[in-house]
Amino acid sequence: MQELVNYYDYRQFIKDFCLQQKKINSSYSYRLFSKRAGVSSSAHLPLVLAGKRNLTGNMLEKYCVPLKLKGEHKKYFYALVEFNQAKEVKDKERKLQKLEKIRTKFKKQNLPIKQTHSLYSKWFYVPIYELIQTANFVNDGKWIAKKLGKRISSIQAALAIRALLDAGHIQKDEMGKITTKNPIVYSVDETENILVRAFQLKMIEESIMHINDPIEEREFNSLTIGLCEQQKIQLKEKIKNFVEEVNSEFSVNDGEQKIFQLNLQLFSFE
Length: 270
Fold this sequence. Notes:
By secondary structure, the chain is mainly alpha-helical. It folds into two domains: about 5-105; about 125-250, no CATH class. The protein has helices at about 10-25, 30-35, 45-50, 55-65, 70-85, 90-105, 125-130, 140-145, 155-165, 190-210, 230-250, and strands spanning about 170, 180. Strands 1-2 form a two-stranded antiparallel ribbon. The longest helix has 22 residues, at about 230-250. The chain starts with 9 loop residues before the first helix and ends in a 20-residue tail after the last helix.
């Protein structure tokens, strides 16, 4: 079983903990877990693990007993529960930042902690990743910051390059040239999904800032339309295919390039 601080799903952690205990003691069960937690209902744990009930207040404290959590581990578990049970994207993002701060303390203890530098950890990682693929890229913090409209500092840009190198998203050859390494992948992992949603939210906010840009530098369009369920499914597929086609057709270019952001949203008013 991996370290608690490598988990981003407290329910999965509890499941793995119980499985590990079962291997040690074949008579171990959810009922025994509940008994050690001082929980009278044997149905509570299965409901929690199924996502049908949340952990709050006193019950959260009780669960730490059979899990044998103390100190920073207990603090991380509390923060993990808050993260998993948060509803809004921005709230989840704040909770995730809290988790990462606690993880930093464990890193200092040289515990086996997985690298978590997602391409979506910071909103500007993706634009910088794309910028690196342009023919005119210059590995200089000031140059990168300028290309992003000075929305970040030169120090943030330099640190972003270091983070992307450490995470293996980009690489540096013997001549010091930086190139991209891994393709952008939308993960089904909850943590990654939260970061992707936070990134998308930031890009929507950015689009509002550019609505008054010169018409030759931007394209804004909208359509309000009635759709049946089958048409909605078909349109969603068309949008996905369109994005893939645009990426494939326009990603290779030897000329001088700027980084553009293409947003497509489809939602119901109901």
